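task queued by scheduler; priority normal; single chain, no ligands, no partner chains; default sampling; output format set to structure tokens
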Amino acid sequence: MTIFEGASPTVGFPRIAGLPWSEDPDRAHVEARKLLEEEGESLARRISLWLSTLDQRDVDSLLSRSMYRSSHHKWCLGGDHHDYVVWLHQYKEPAEFAEAEGFAASTHNHRYGFSSRVVSGGLHATWFNLVGQDNAEHREFHGGGNAHVELHPAKQTWLREGDVVTLDHHDIHQIDKVAARTCTLLIQGPVRRDFSTVFNPSGGPVKIIDAHETLLSRLTHRLSE
């Protein structure tokens, strides 16, 4: 059974929504990865067919929640942003991606964990370890944005069509380059913290607060002072 059965941008993805995102997010990620692995071949064709059958209400919902980045388009296929979101990432062509300076082309981590499957094309990625990770993590979480840290490449690999990867929210990684016509299907889990981190090649981590819930809470607190 495909994850697209009974799914739509307005309804969501029933098979993914049924995973224990609130009770046991780690197990939910394991199950989400299995769902991506079970999709089999011709996934790009199935996604194309599913998109072609959406009614106008679904199309409007998809477009209103999708995003544009310098490195790729983020098409929001459905989800609730509290437990899970399903994205189709459509990367720029190789030459244009190589010129991108946005978040996805940086060395970074996320607010959330996710599992992702390469639908078409491919991408080369690097994972990093922090030297003195305990101290660096402490500085990262406690506002030490200018503290020097050293990143060591831990793994480099080409991810090809059909490959699936799972990353936790603190996993540091970078997409180095992409192949032509690269798309990935990504299942994003619940937000685990209110910021992600970009790591400057010169050593300084930069905290990026990018959760509107957190920003709204801080605004509310400031206005009440």
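post-processing summary
- Residues 120 and 182 are 5 Å apart (CA to CA).
- The radius of gyration is 18 Å.
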